[in-house]
Amino acid sequence: MQLTMTCAEESRAVAETLAGTFKPADTFFLIESSLPDYGGWGGEAVKSAATGGSFAPYLAHLQSAPRAKVLFIRKPQSEGKNFYIALTNQDTPRIYHTALADYNELLQLEVSSLTADATPRINGRELAEIDELYIVCTNGRHDPCCAAHGTPVYHELVAQAGAKRVWKTTHIGGHRMAATLIAFPQGIVYGHVDPPDVEAIVSNQRAGYLLTHKYRGRGAYAGHALDASAHQAAGAAEAIIRERTRNYRLDDLRLLEARESGPDRQRVTFLDADGGRHCAEVTTGMSAPRLTSCGDAPKPMPQHDVRVLAAD
After folding, report:
1. Mean predicted confidence (pLDDT) in 52-61
2. Tens-place pLDDT, residues 190-203
């Protein structure tokens, strides 16, 4: 009998590089719902809800925000309508929470209030700022690896961070890197997470540090609106530069620029806390065909070659 690997097993077996695999998103909207009117969380839960039914106008309104990413969240023994907004593309990332009386309130969100110097408002009501939140993809109907790897990580996150700060979420992208999770307010994305990794992720997040060996990227780089290729190149460069310079605190490095320097090539520059420049050339090519989702045919995937340049 020929045994085949799942997409997550293959990704781990080939030691796929995680950094640079998350696409940009300035603003995250997290909506508590199991989508009972849509038959539960389907494989493309957000896309399905956006195309018709009661949630469509709500999602259209939220997605009018610049580079918005909408996710549905849920957890056992919760039947509320919790709603979170994470603003990641600013010097001080923030995450806010409110309990909705009705989903119609989403239409009352003042999108213009999603700025660094204002608190988001719904129908004039300010949302409450919170300190941290973790979401982990468990959407097994999108890919079984998400449920198989994400569920035990969810339970360990609850044990380490507390039930109030942890949610299951629909597909965030990159299920072959399951378990994959996002730590807010910065929107730090991790992959290939196993339950033993969770304590370090939570403790480092609370202390303001980054774990580079599980790092996929982040939602946004403060003050930048990079396209997907530049954003992912910046994520790939960031992990290597942090490891080379041992700048593991989130505030140790700040992105200065990511600019095209040739075909499929980006020059990425970070500044450290003392104003020193750290540059890398990131060349993006394609891998050999690999599983990107269980049941699909293998296909090449982008991969980054990072060459660190001499520091200024």
Report:
1. 93
2. 999 999 999 999 99
Closest CA to 166 of 106, 69, 35, 77: 77
Domains assigned to the chain: 1-225 (3.40.30.10)
Alpha carbon distance 242, 160 (integer Å): 26
pLDDT at 285: 93
Q: How far apart are CA 189 and CA 218, in angstroms?
A: 5
* 312 SS3 class: coil
Q: What is the pLDDT, as a whole number, of residue 295?
A: 82
> The sheet that has 181-184: what strands, in order across it?
128-130, 94-99, 82-87, 27-32, 68-74, 166-169, 133-137, 181-184, 188-190, 215-218
For residue 69, what is the enclosing H or E element?
strand 68-74
Q: Which two tokens stand for residue 297?
A: 């045919």
pLDDT confidence of 311, banded at 50, 70, 90? low
Complete DSSP assignment for 89-151? SSSS-EEEEEE-SSGGGGGGB-GGG-STTS--EETTEEPEEES-EEEEE--TTT-HHHHHHHH
- Indicate if the pLDDT at residue 293 is higher than 70: yes
Percent of the chain with pLDDT over 90: 79
Sign of the Cα pseudo-torsion (51, 54, 59, 60, in order) = positive
Average pLDDT, rounded, for the chain: 93
Phi first, then psi: what are they for 295, rounded to 5°?
Answer: 95, -15
166 token code pair: 């942890």
